From TrEMBL:
Catalytic activity: 4-hydroxybutanoate + 2-oxoglutarate = (R)-2-hydroxyglutarate + succinate semialdehyde; (S)-3-hydroxybutanoate + 2-oxoglutarate = (R)-2-hydroxyglutarate + acetoacetate
Naturally occurring in which organism (per UniProt): Rhodotorula graminis (strain WP1)
UniProt similarity note: Belongs to the iron-containing alcohol dehydrogenase family. Hydroxyacid-oxoacid transhydrogenase subfamily.
GO (cellular component) term, any one: mitochondrion
Keyword ATP-binding: no
Keywords: Mitochondrion, Oxidoreductase, Transit peptide
Domain of life: Eukaryota
InterPro entries: ADH_Fe/GldA, ADH_Fe_C, Alcohol_dehydrogenase_Fe, HOT
Protein name: hydroxyacid-oxoacid transhydrogenase
Domain Alcohol dehydrogenase iron-type/glycerol dehydrogenase GldA, residue spans: 60-232
Compartments, as annotated in UniProt: Mitochondrion
Coiled coil: none
Domain Fe-containing alcohol dehydrogenase-like C-terminal: 282-345
Amino acid sequence: MCSTGAQAAANSPLDILNAGNAIRSGGRSKVLTRAPLARGYATPVDAPQGDYAFEVAASNLRFGEGVTREIGMDFANMKARKVGVFTDSTLAKLLPMQMALESLDANNVSYEVFDRTRVEPNQESWEEAITFAKKHDFSHFLAVGGGSVIDTAKVANLFTVYPDADLYDFINAPIGKGKPIEKTLRPLIAVPTTAGTGSETTGTAIADLPHLSAKTGIASRAMRPLLGIVDPLNTDSCPREVHISSGLDVLFHALESWTAIPYTERVPRPSNPILRPAYQGRNPVADIFSEWALRQTIINLPRVARDGNDREAKASMLLASTFAGIGFGNAGVHLAHGISYPVSGLNKKKGKWQHPGYEVNHPIVPHGISVALAGPSIFRFTAPTDPARHRQVANIFEELAEPHAKDHIDTSRVSDADLGQLLFDRIARFLVNLDVPRGLKAIGYGTGDVSDLVEGTLPQRRVLDLAPGFKGSDGREELAHIIEGAMEF
């Protein structure tokens, strides 16, 4: 699991040298970078300095079958005055909520339930949840659901503490003002019911903004749940398609955080620690979590797709989701998530794709599917920026693939120039074996939509700035190339 060989040689000495220089100079030293720069363009002498430090932050976690039944004791121990319980209309009737509410009742914890969370939330659904939370002035919060529910509870908590703020005060720049969150939020316990988002570990919340036909959100360590209750019993009710979509989110969380630019190349260096973003660029700690999650997903997601009763594989996927959350929550994601937001947002006007297995009354490209569709094209594009790291990814796919999905090509004999296409093929084969739609055309997009998809991706600066392979431009040309290549695989 630990990185060795070429990867260690590429990271550790530089990290140590930068840290030493920073300590000696009180943080004013120039950060040394490898030659050639992974970003692919020359750096002027007076260019903004990259960061010299990274931070590691994650929620407290509790893993095990049946731990949902401990929630009432947790809130009683915290002397909760009144708990806001957030879920959706489907989960409100299922075992995870039954266990949670029984535990609250058994421990005499007062609560109110909000069960109108929207799957793939939008601004309107967030505002409804915020209004509910402000009305009740909850002392504590509980989220029981997938990423949509957990993200909604985070935002409801935020605006309980900032009741007079505007939503766009905290929405990521340049869409919103991206103000730092300086107050302490109220305790939130998150209970994931899908093995996908890792939202129980992070301070990120994402929603669809209809007027932009794209998604963005709020990202701050201040929004992290106090505790994530990771209970394998809670994913039993997921349909096969939800397991697959959620698992693909895990896969790309791991791939993107593993291949993001190094934290030393993220600019500008923050003038104050509070300004250091949650998404910092890849770093040695995040790498460990991301690689483990990648390996577990390649092994176990096909097993879950084949047999929904495979309890070992489902538990492994839930833990992989949490590990990937820790990885990307500290390193960040990049192109697959950046492109996914307009893919989902524009669907209501263009493809109007209604993914099977989702009980909703509106067109939907589930988040994991929208992330995966451009995946093969993205990593064909990024492979030349760091062939050694991408070669390791290609090796992992072949090493852990099921026998019928192996291509039996010796990765070490593939040239750097051909590595991107090999990685494209291996990621595509993995997706096809999970019955993922075979590219953007399969869900209703065409080449005439490339420009709109590019325009919807460009505002996602918080993730695009972590993407390798841009040439000093805003990425418009590169994004068009990637999206054209994602039309089919």
